[in-house]
Amino acid sequence: MTDLHLAVALDGAGWHPAAWRSPDARPGELFTAGYWTGLVTEAEHALLDFVTFEDSLGLQSSRFEGPDGRLDQVRGRLDAVLLAARVAPVTTRIGLVPTTSTTHTEPFHVAIGIASLDHVSGGRAGWRPQISARSGDARHFGRREFPEFTPDRRAEPALAEHVSRLFAEAADVVEVVRRLWDSWEDDAEIRDVATGRFIDRDKLHYIDFEGLFFTVRGPSITPRPPQGQPLVTALAHDVQPREFAARGADVVYVTPHSRGEAAVVTGQVRAAEAAVGREGEPLRVFADLVVFLDDDAPAATARKAGLDELDGAPLVSDAFVFTGTPGGLADLLLEWRSAGLDGFRLRPGVLPDDLIGITRGLVPELRRRGAFRHEYEAATLRGLLGLGRPAGRYTRAT
Amino acid sequence: MEEEGPLMPVKQVHLAAHFPGVNNTTVWSDPRSESQIDFGSFVRLAQTAERGRFDFFFLAEGLRLRELKGRIHDLDVMGRPESLTVLSALAAVTSHLGLAATVNSTFNEPYEVARRLASLDHLSGGRAAWNVVTSYDAFTGENFRRGGYLAEADRYTRAAEFLQTARELWNSWRPDAVVADAAGGRFVRPDGIGTFRHQGRHIAISGQFNVPPGPQGQPVIIQAGDSNEGREFAASDADVIFSRHSKPEEARAFYKDVKARLAKYGRRPEDLKILPAVTYALGDTDEEAAEHAALIRRAQVSPQTALAFLEGVWGRDFSGVDPDGPLPDIEPDLGEGVSKGRAQFRGDRGATVEQWRALARQKNLTVRELVIEVTGRQSFIGTPRSVADQIEEFVRTDAADGFIFVPHLTPGGLDDLVDKVVPLLQDKGVFRADYTGPTLRDHLGLTAARTREATS
After folding, report:
1. More confident residue, A385 or A154
2. What residue of A is the nearest CA neighbor of B23?
3. ipTM value of the model?
4. Fewer CB within 10 A of the terminal residue: chain B, N end or C end?
5. Chain B neighbours among A 99-128 (CB < 8 Å)?
6. Nearest residue of chain B to residue A199 (CA atoms)
7. Are B140 and B63 in contact, with CB atoms under 8 Å apart?
8. Chains A and B: how many Cβ contacts under 8 Å?
9. What does A123-187 look like in DSSP terms, one character per residue?
10. Which of B71, B80, B111 sits opposite A222 (nearest CB)?
């Protein structure tokens, strides 16, 4: 059996809104470096492929349309790229995948930020581009007015058009970022004392991107990252985001709720690849699951129910919510995997509890079944996913 | 001169280190020169600065590669990372050193910059600083969605409003907003997270900020402007001035002028530290130091660099000119100029051409010698003892509060300064033997920004 790939999505105190009230949670440390380095080193000890860091350009809220004024949930978060960079020097092999906004953040800044993360981590950077549809977030920038948007009204023509434009813009952002990463050839730095030249300017390239939304000239100010192209990942629930992923990403996260749905969505991903004419490596397909893990299944169920009660409502998630034992989860992952998935991105319900359930419970169970690595087999994140180091797009064939 | 009694504290020196810049101050042809981009180079320089108990480590920024005659300038070190990302990583391998990022206020938005700086402040335990710069050139704008939208005359008003807005965002949370009271079910206290609304000429935003205040409340603000508006901006709003005045008389005049501007903003002279950027060359004797300095200068001004430099001032093609021959009789083109990006020559080019012609004639200088002569020697040249004396004197006589040292070598460029000069300053009692607090504000002796906000 080939190994499955395993990632963990980190956010605040965990993915349950009341997670911070769990006995082992460390809610007073959420804004400290020690909290995050502790979590990521725990994940690295278990040899996970990568961790992702959520981010947003607005305050968390239980309502899509704006702040909810709630005092009983985690509010505030640190910049994901800086969080990943802070963790990089204290880890050596695990991939680090921060989220940034394709809607409000300048593509040039994203390109140099992720390239720099790749430099400081020695080739372990990834990126999760995400659109920002909320009108409240747009008001934090004051550059554009967005319609009031809620997911349940997304079928309305004006709102569908709004989201469609944001994805088209996101596709351009990914294209610009990827071009900027390639805008320095690997051997551009020559240090030729005889001619006095530090750089071979013929190996630096203007990217001259011109799209509907913006133009970017280039080249980057940052030399090509160690991986050439850091790993690009995207979450997709629908046709348009799947096609966005198929155009520009290396990994897609999907949210099936059963093995059957996993088979369907894998097929949809392959269809999206065909629709956009994707060439080269196929998307690596990861299913997202929220997990609550305990040594016996009723304890996990009871723990989640307790948190639901504290929060005043059952947990709502786009992803399947698993409560049970690490062994039970291992069985489920292997069954779903046979539907064509490459791996899973697990969202721990509570941190650190359910991360530890993954690293010290699930991972040994998967190893017993011959389905997870015993040592890191590559030094870069692309390498862990079986992706080679691509040649730069501007490099002339010799 | 007033005698200092034993109880009168001696004015302390502040020291900062600049990562070797993307320009010809940095010598890449030396065999000891290593990568400008590998993280190891940043670690080595930052840890050396911390070993020397420096106040902070400083990264510059340039958002477009420089060009000469319409082509990318290829003679100087080039390529750098995104400052905040590298500083956040450096927070993991240092414990006290302040971490200063240069971040442009023209091609960024306040919400994003404010949250990134607050994040760095959290992730470093209160060591973040922001060097607020502005650029207005359409050339750099070509890398950004906004393009070149800002007129030169507006750059300080934009920068001032940008900083003001960032402060409004940082102040929109109470410092004690996060209570994380699990038993009581309160993560944040009522009214802990306020709203903000800024309606100004350059920026119109509203909503809620999403990062709690960092350990310093607000990061340390650095500013480098030298014009009247720049000085006023710094006097009203900055904690540190990164000054260009490293000659004692000029520096004293600048110091006096800027410090005198503080009172009208309700600030004390010690609330703003003036730190000129300086370079140095050491030797065991004065003669050795002078030789070392001359060697560095020759390495900084290669034959090709000398020609490129004159092309930037003359606006003419100098290819074919012998750098080791006399200054050729080429008439300058004083039109638009051929150099673009951060390092372009900004003075009066016509007058400069006449001065340099006279200088070359008078001293019988070759092209390369002329450029070496006019582009400035090191600020401090001498034995460790004499450099330590110069530093002390400079600070004691109110020409500066300290210095930002710009080394010429990556990554070993701070080694002899830290190993040989810093101990002498410590022996003199004018520089800390160890850090006395965890935050950069502690090192700089600055009061909390929030307190100042409240009293203004």
Report:
1. A385
2. A198
3. 0.98
4. N
5. 104-109, 112-113, 115-117, 119-122
6. B74
7. yes
8. 221
9. S-BEEEEE----HHHHHTTTS-------GGGTTSHHHHHHHHHHHHHHHHHHHHHHHHHHSB-TT
10. B80
Q: Could you tell me how far CA A371 lies from the centroid of its own chain?
A: 23
B342 confidence band (pLDDT: 50, 70, 90): low
Q: Does the beta carbon of A340 lie under 8 angstroms from any beta carbon of chain B? A: no
Give the nearest partner residue to B82 out of A75, A201, A222, using CB atoms: A222
For A76, left (φ over 0), alpha (ψ -120 to 50), or beta?
A: left
A356 pLDDT higher than 80 = yes
CA distance linking residue A180 with residue A363, whole number of Å:
37
Find the mean pLDDT for residues A85-104.
98
Q: Is there a contact between B185 and A113 if contact means CB atoms under 8 Å apart?
A: no
Contacts of B109 in chain A (CB under 8 A): 104, 141, 143
**Model confidence pLDDT, tens digit, residues A16-47:** 999 999 999 999 999 999 999 999 999 999 99
Q: What is the pLDDT of residue B295?
A: 95
Q: What mean pLDDT do residues B207-214 have?
A: 97
How would residue B1 be classed by pLDDT, with cut points 50, 70 and 90?
very low
pTM of the model: 0.96
Phi, psi dihedrals of residue B378, rounded to the nearest 5° = -65, 150
Q: Answer whether the bond into residue A219 is a cis peptide, omega within 30°.
A: yes
Write down the mean pLDDT value for chain B. Answer: 93
- Tell me the shortest Cα–Cα distance from B139 to chain A, in angstroms: 9
* Token code pair at residue B152: 């030169």
* B50 — pLDDT class (breaks 50, 70, 90): very high
Measured between CB atoms, does A206 come within 8 Å of chain B? Answer: no
* B85/A113 Cβ within 8 A: yes
Sorting pLDDT into bands at 50, 70 and 90, what band is B377? confident
The pLDDT value recorded for residue B448 is 67
Q: How far is CA A22 from CA A19, A30, A38, A280, A348, in A?
A: 6, 14, 18, 45, 13
Angle between helices B228-237 and B155-170 (to 10 degrees): 10
* Domains in chain A, CATH or no CATH each: 5-131+229-384 (3.20.20.30)
Q: What are phi and psi of B358, to 5 degrees?
A: -65, -40
Q: To the nearest whole number, what is the mean pLDDT of chain A?
A: 96
Determine, for residues A82 and B81 on separate chains, whether the beta-carbon distance falls below 8 Å: no
pLDDT of residue B156 exceeding 90: no
Cβ-count burial B145-183 (b if 16+ within 10 Å, e if not):
bebbebeeebbbbbbbbbbebbbbbbbbbbeebbebbbe
CB contact under 8 A, B122 and A56: no
pLDDT given for residue A148 in this prediction: 86
**A28 touches B: beta carbon within 8 Å:** yes
* Residue A213 pLDDT level (bands cut at 50, 70, 90): very high
Hey, what domains does chain B have and what are their CATH numbers? 14-281+380-455 (3.20.20.30), 302-374 (no CATH)
Which amino acid is residue A395, in one-letter code? Answer: T
User: Checking DSSP bridges between strand A5-10 and strand A343-348, what pairing results, if any?
Assistant: parallel
- Single-letter residue type at A291: V
Measure A346 CA to nearest chain B CA, in Å: 25
**Testing the interface with A: which of B26, B187, B198, B302 to mutate, by most A Cβ within 10 A?**
B187
Q: How many angstroms away from the CA of A86 is the closest CA of chain B? A: 4
A389–B contact, CB cutoff 8 A: no
Q: Looking at this protein, which amino acid is placed at residue A61?
A: S
Q: Which residue has the tokens 């109880």?
A: B7
Q: Do residue A79 and residue B144 have CB atoms under 8 angstroms apart?
A: no
Give the helix/strand (H/E) hosting A244.
Answer: helix A239-248
| C-alpha span between B58 and B87 (Å, rounded) | 9
